[in-house]
Amino acid sequence: MIIFDYIFYRIAHFFHKKDGDEGVRALAFVVVIQGLLLISLFFFIQMISATHIDLRGWSKYVAVVLMVILGGINFIRYRGKYRYLHTRWGNNETKEQKLVRGVLVLFAIVIPYLLAICTSLLVYK
């Protein structure tokens, strides 16, 4: 979970002037990233297994339930944690570390979208 903590911290830090310590946008980003990773995992399991579960009619409901559950879990996890994470990473990073880790955070935001798209296209050819 440390990777998600860091992603939450960096996005919350970026939007801190607008969101304050709550990090609502950061929470939304983390929830979407985790949801897309779980959906990609589901599609990947379907690709390698012999079973095929067609969720086309139910996919939006499954996605909403998944996002609500992840949102609740992450809300509890990150409520009031911005200051703690800021003391952990805010002053302890060099500029080089901050740059490299910032690029990795961008990859962590983009790659789940690409994975979900690619795996869904492969499963539902």
UniProtKB/TrEMBL annotation:
* TM stretches of this protein: 26-49, 61-78, 99-124
Q: Does the keyword Membrane apply?
A: yes
Keywords assigned? Membrane, Transmembrane, Transmembrane helix
- The protein in question is named Uncharacterized protein
